[in-house]
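agent> fetching stored inputs for the FE(III)-(4-mesoporphyrinone) docking request
agent> found them:
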Amino acid sequence: GGIALHTAQQEKNSEDYQEVYNAIATKMREEKDFDNNNGYGPVLVRLSWHVSGTWDKRDNSGGSFGGTYRFKKEMNDPLSRGLQNGFKFLESIDKQFPWLSHGDLFTLGGVTAIQEMQGPKIPWRSGRVDEPESMVPDNGRLPEPHYGADYVRSYYERFNFTDQEVVALLGAHVLGKAHLKNSGYDGPWDDESNIFSNAFYDNLLKLKWTPEINDAGNKQYDNKEKGYMMLPTDYALFQDPKYLKYVKAYANDQDLFFKDFTKVYTKLIENGIEFPKENKPHLFKTLKEQGK
Ligand code: HIF
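agent> prediction call returned; pasting tokens
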């Protein structure tokens, strides 16, 4: 983490960042058949979270500020398998906008993906600055999927997230799927894997989930009829009464989910960063809103 310094990028305005947004969104559209027609949206969201999820509040190390995911040690974290696809997707954007820092690129990628997949508007601030390889945090700061509510709760203590914030964040698991080769888990959470909605909570509450051992020997919760799955850390939200309360609230009210998700996701991608007061958040228009 760190303090945003004065750089060439500081001269850029909302229109410049909207241009980057448009370049990412247009490329998403052009390459929408990636990963069995999921497109790049889900992997871009996951990338934005993994580059941010290395933050440690105790010493303000890691996080999205330094853009250190671009270095091998962080990119090769076994818990980030598959995210190289997101990085490769963003390489041409990086070339097109050389003034943009990597931390800003990775987080703007997530914001663009969420909005283009019909999700909420995420106010986004610029100002991350590339840090050198010596600042790459050690592997082991990202969460594992194998455990229950106690693990999830204590993991997100690292970011000071409340139960409500944890549940609001986890709704992003409506997107994309687990790939056996990446994580040892297998299957999607919903059939609309590239539409941002509150379906994660609805599925968790209303479908019947059976614990099964998958082909990699890991326990996951399956719904045979629909072909969906839940990770143990997802199912934890159903098992824990304090979490369950919020699962119900978000299943019943998509606007509430969008509002709370926006707050906690913004917190996640800004963890540890002190933005100068003049760095006002940018609010982007979707391609559709621009008539594109
Ligand atoms: Fe994920 N997550 N996540 N995740 N995640 C996977 C896939 C995605 C966890 C584990 C996994 C969040 C929290 C947690 C996305 C976004 C977010 C996979 C499967 C695993 C194992 C990867 C693969 O096999 O390709 C754990 C343990 C989390 C904490 C409890 C966030 C809230 C939901 C923070 C978040 O935003 C997305 C998107 C995907 C789908 C990626 C894809 O390639 O389709």
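agent> quick read of the result: Residues 116 and 289 are 10 Å apart (CA to CA).
agent> awaiting further instructions
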